[in-house]
Design a protein that fits this description.
By secondary structure, the chain is an alpha/beta fold. It has a 10-stranded mixed β-sheet. It is extended and about 130 Å long. The N and C termini lie far apart (120 Å).
Length: 400
């Protein structure tokens, strides 16, 4: 009582498991929000003007390609195609549609194609290197060259780069330019798998990125890889969770999850006009429903309880009701079908699609009723008067 009513301690704020990219603030120039950081649980940014390069290392499905797409989305939002151009090294073709066609300068999927692309990029970027006559003020303004910012995005670098000491990399011609990326408008965003990353740190490009002070993001990584980036012990983390390592900061982050959207002019997946829609070629085909009593009756079959259908359900297979519902008599064979076959067409997978015309499907054959001994069971009492009357008519005709 002496203490009175006092507010409790504030709840501990923790990083969420998922951060939708739509909830991030808008990018400012080349300062791009990538997710939330754990210190204040607020958005963190990567500024390509102060740190021109970014290296991401992580296991499979840890969020590396998603991170690259976050970068492309933000740059396209803030830059026109005359102000930013993209070149891709993408062996798995995961980034083919990452940017519009007018933003894509080049695209390579093999080491040889990547080497040729990098050679062309170096030829275009070397004239931007500052000469001895460039003052510090002009160095900050970047006014001695004109042209777009060049973003080189490399996904799955382990598929094209070397993994051991002395291995060659198709990106090696860029080594002399990495240290001056901010001054010449060049940005390398490289993602590599975590497998064998301990040995791969001897790769000349990865080593040069570390020497140039590139920002690094260590996502989920097997602890058996040993110490990375000096004193970092890798850990197994949820998708998108990682350790952000910049020149002055080190904190845990949750990168945002990019929600893919259909390009303009195309339908959203799952809509009626999409290939994945209800009638599209990629749509899942549901199991055909089990026939009910009405469909069995119209095709001459028995009801679910095993009894014979009544007069309203079509009577015998050759009766008039069966002919009217199926479009043919029972003697027509495959040409005469059940009501469901007359109004349903066969789909590409053989499953009927409601409302589409198609060949009629024959109904199931009428069941043979048997007695307990296996011999045909006697006819029901209701059918005997009709049979006796028919026999009497036949005898009168023979006598006549």
């Amino acid at each position: 009582d002496a203490w009175g009513a006092r507010p409790g301690a504030p709840a501990v704020r923790m990083l969420p498991a998922t951060v939708p990219a739509a909830e991030l603030p808008a990018p400012r120039g080349r300062s791009i929000p990538l997710g939330l950081e754990e210190t204040r649980v607020e958005p963190f940014h990567h500024d390509f003007d102060t740190s021109p390069h970014l290296l991401a290392v992580g296991d499979t499905e840890s969020g590396k390609t998603n991170l690259l797409r976050l970068v492309t989305d933000a740059v396209v939002r803030t830059h026109g195609s005359d102000a930013a151009q993209f070149a891709f090294v993408d062996p798995r073709r995961e980034l083919y549609d990452a940017v519009p066609a007018d933003y894509r300068l080049d695209y390579a999927v093999s080491p040889d194609a990547a080497a040729e692309m990098v050679t062309n990029a170096v030829t275009a970027l070397k004239p931007r290197l500052p000469g001895p006559d460039i003052s510090p003020d002009r160095l900050r303004r970047h006014d001695w060259w004109t042209g777009p910012q060049l973003f080189l995005l490399v996904d799955d670098y382990d598929l094209i780069g070397g993994s051991g000491f002395g291995a060659r990399s198709p990106l090696e011609p860029l080594l002399d330019l990495l240290g001056q990326g901010a001054e010449i408008g060049f940005h390398l965003v490289l993602a590599r798998a975590a497998g064998g990353i301990g040995r791969a740190m001897s790769d000349p490009v990865l080593r040069r990125l570390g020497e140039a002070g590139a920002t690094r993001l260590l996502l989920s990584c097997p602890p058996g890889e040993g110490m990375l980036f000096g004193d970092i012990k890798p850990r197994t983390l949820p998708p998108g969770r990682g350790l952000w390592l910049s020149r002055r900061h080190r904190f845990q982050v949750q990168t945002a999850l990019r929600t893919p959207s259909a390009p303009q002019g195309e339908a959203e997946p799952g809509s009626d006009d999409s290939p994945d829609g209800p009638d599209g070629p990629n749509s899942p085909v549901p199991f055909a429903p089990a026939p009910d009593a009405s469909s069995d009756a119209s095709s001459g079959g028995s009801a679910p309880d095993g009894s014979s259908p009544g007069p309203d359900a079509g009577g015998s297979p050759g009766g008039p009701a069966a002919d009217d519902s199926s479009g043919g008599s029972a003697s027509d064979g495959p040409a005469g079908g059940s009501a469901s076959g007359a109004h349903t067409g066969a789909s590409r997978t053989g499953t009927p699609e409601v409302g589409s015309p198609g060949p009629r499907v024959p109904g199931p054959p009428a069941p043979v009723r048997t007695g307990s001994s296996g011999a045909p069971a006697p006819e029901p009492e209701a059918d005997r008067p009709e049979r006796d009357a028919a026999d009497a008519d036949e005898e009168e005709e023979e006598e006549a």
